[in-house]
Amino acid sequence: MTAPNLRNRYLDDSISTASPAKLLLMLYDRLVLDLMQGEEALRNGKREEAHQRITHAQDIILELRTTLHVDAWDGAPGLANLYGFLLTELIGANIARSPERVAACRDLIEPLRDAWREAALAAG
């Protein structure tokens, strides 16, 4: 088996055996990574790379939004609204080629990721 195949198998196994809390953290970690790389690519004039990273970040936010149970807790509707705002902002950032707008989105996401991580650690 080749190295890329082994890596893909490892990733598939990691995802399929992860708890819901771990999956959520994996999504948030990848979202932050995409935003960092998208911002950096914009700053370096790498338009296609930036577009790929930002649209992948949008896909993750869309997944987070569609899987959010807005009836589950009082803060869920606000989180859903934040996800909607982030999607709109990232679309605008991508069109305007604005690393500042991507950074602002990352600044909103990182504390959420950290809070989810703390909650997961406290629960398990």
UniProtKB/TrEMBL annotation:
<dbReference type="InterPro" id="IPR036584">
    <property type="entry name" value="FliS_sf"/>
</dbReference>
<dbReference type="GO" id="GO:0071973">
    <property type="term" value="P:bacterial-type flagellum-dependent cell motility"/>
</dbReference>
<keyword id="KW-0282">Flagellum</keyword>
<dbReference type="Pfam" id="PF02561">
    <property type="entry name" value="FliS"/>
</dbReference>
<keyword id="KW-1005">Bacterial flagellum biogenesis</keyword>
<dbReference type="GO" id="GO:0005829">
    <property type="term" value="C:cytosol"/>
</dbReference>
<protein>
    <submittedName>
        <fullName>Flagellar protein FliS</fullName>
    </submittedName>
</protein>
<dbReference type="GO" id="GO:0044780">
    <property type="term" value="P:bacterial-type flagellum assembly"/>
</dbReference>
<dbReference type="InterPro" id="IPR003713">
    <property type="entry name" value="FliS"/>
</dbReference>
<keyword id="KW-0143">Chaperone</keyword>
<keyword id="KW-0969">Cilium</keyword>
<comment type="similarity">
    <text>Belongs to the FliS family.</text>
</comment>
<keyword id="KW-0963">Cytoplasm</keyword>
<keyword id="KW-0966">Cell projection</keyword>
